[in-house]
Amino acid sequence: MAGRGQWTRESLVDGVRSGDRRALARAITLVENADPLAYELVRDLYPTTGQAYAIGVTGPPGVGKSSLIAALLAHVRALGPTAGVISIDPSSPFSQGALLGDRIRLADHFLDPGVFIRSMGTRGHLGGLAEAALQALLLLDAAGKDLVFVETVGTGQSEVEVVGVADTVLLVLMPGSGDSIQALKAGIMEIPDVIAINKMDHPAAKTMLNEVRQVLGLDHDRVWKPPIVLTESVRGENIPELWEKLVQHRAHLERDGLLEERRRRHLAGEVFAVASSRAKQHLERAVHDDPELRRLLDAVQRRELDPLTAVKEIMEKVFKVGEGDGSRPH
Q1: Considering only Cβ atoms within 10 Å of each terminal Cβ, which end of the chain, N or C, has fewer?
Q2: Measured between alpha carbons, how far is 250 from 255 in angstroms, rounded to an integer?
Q3: For a pLDDT cut of 70, what percent of the chain falls above it?
Q4: What 8-state DSSP symbol labels residue 3?
Q5: Residues 277-306, mean pLDDT to the nearest whole number
Q6: Considering only CA atoms, which of 223, 58, 213, 51 is closest in space to residue 137?
Q7: 200 contacts 169 by C-beta, under 8 angstroms
Q8: In angstroms, what is the C-alpha Rg of the chain?
Q9: DSSP line for 195-253
Q10: Which residues contact 174 (CB under 8 A, 6 or more apart)?
Q11: Considering the entire predicted model, what is its pTM?
């Protein structure tokens, strides 16, 4: 296989398809850096994707998402399937110094050729993060991974977008993370498909289980009732049960023809999300570089021009979108 400096488009495509770890690592780096070669790679590999099952793992910082993924990986690998992990949790042990226990647990997976773990830095590029994560997911899919875990903190728009590409969403909570219950109650947090309450030995674990159950009970329309599993990831307790619930959710989606529908909706949503992000960047650059458009903004800021009139003029100038092109609000 080609050395680091000698990768070509063809050798990278072949390398990713054959599951070569160095090719995968190089391809994901290109994706993260928005390198033009990354677009060509994803374009070449995209037709063979759609085989991997994506599990989004989300939840507040510090609830043990990484150690739970490590425990699930150990269980899954014993059953045979290969797996990838994309971690975009800035506080994750995948990306920074882990607690010693976590690091020892993960070391086994780093050495396992059937597992590929990659941490992606948030680096402040919100629009680009969801986009890079989706492309990394597609690359792991093209490399033949049966499962891909996407780990993210359950806050902020980019994380919502990232979890939006998953087939099954696992929310990890721990006793004491009361804000998450509030977020679920208020409908700010999407209702996940499966919930794990980690650190099951905590005295408040049962109370939390009941609280979450009450919140979920308010939603009578859901066909799939999200199961709640009490886990202890460091000791591997109830990990087989948690895996069984994830498998059951997948079976439910496949049985009712919902998996294909969900994937189609997610991919369409992703196209719109990336297009919106690009359009916004283009718009900001255009306004920044054009004195006439900057004057419009100034006029709005001085309250001499209303915002919607300014929008209309900016849209006409930047995107050549006028009243007759369906640009009017419906």
Answers
A1: C
A2: 8
A3: 83
A4: -
A5: 92
A6: 51
A7: no
A8: 22
A9: EEE--TTSTTHHHHHHHHHHHHHT--S-SS---EEE-BTTTTBTHHHHHHHHHHHHHHH
A10: 62, 63, 64, 197, 198, 199, 202
A11: 0.85
